[in-house]
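REVIEWER CHECKLIST
Item 1: Sequence provided? yes
Item 2: Single chain? yes
Item 3: Sequence as submitted:
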Amino acid sequence: MAGEVSYAQNGGFAGAATRLGNGPRAMSMANAFTATTSEGIYPYYNPALVAESSGFKQFDLSVSSMSFDRVFQTVGGNFKLPPNAGISFGIIRAGVKDIDERSLSGYPLGSFNASEYQLFSAFGVQFSSKFNAGISFKLSLANYHEDLSTASSVGVDLGILYKISNSFNFGFTIQDMFANYTWNSKDLYNLQQNRNVVNTFPTRFKWGLSYQNETFTVASEFEVQSYLSEVDKREFFTTNNSTPDFIDTINEVSTSSGIFRIGGSWKAHERFTLRGGYRITDTANSESGSMSSGFSVNLPFDALSPSIDYAFVIEPYNVANMHVFALRLHL
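Item 4: Structure as written out by the authors:
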């Protein structure tokens, strides 16, 4: 007699927290920032953007209010490299606090925190008045339990920005290439047998188009995420009055999904800007749409030109809501 048991189940993909976005300006516009330059320089979305000339050093610091004891914070700065290049540095911190830990029998063992960090640096060059290109390197660290070794990953982004006209921009990026976490849970579960498990980040392909003038910005983009997953399969064979024999195999399965984003902003006053956006998390699922909105207030100070940014984001599939706040300075 032969039988087959499958133990694998799709529970998400590595690095999900680092794909939430970067700052309320972009998140309120559904993260449709691959080709957007009117709201500032955010090379998190496209490393080619860092080559844009803004006339100042931009510094952003954001914090979020989230349900389920989650934490999400970002910080970043952009710097001009004369005559026609730029460099950017940033950090993303995400995690969950006070997770209830239980034994296999259900007895409480206390609580623990899970955290994830991403440090990234982007470099871009403006090759002409119409064309920019850039590259970004990202170091991700995941610490999910004290008995589980911290996993690390290095990813690479490539991007271009082409200015079709004074108002229209086109952008393209490939993000999170080569990024993956490698785990071994031998110490966590006190196992004699063990093997390394590799969780690969989705590779992201994004095409963006934006229209920008002094008052309005409308931006859209389409993203394809390519996933590579390990699937464990166990087959068992038995004969009469014999001990079952097991054969374990590991297969890699490749899948993909599409994401559509559209967002806009309106500069209602020199000190006040409104924003909104809509995102379809999975173009194959008609119920995966979610909205976002936000605003910026430019404070009346000449020194550092500070602004307060805010975004309200409905998370995909209406799981929860996010409130994101940021302080932006011109150094």
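Item 5: Key structural point noted by reviewer: The two ends are 73 Å apart (CA to CA).
Item 6: Recommendation: ____
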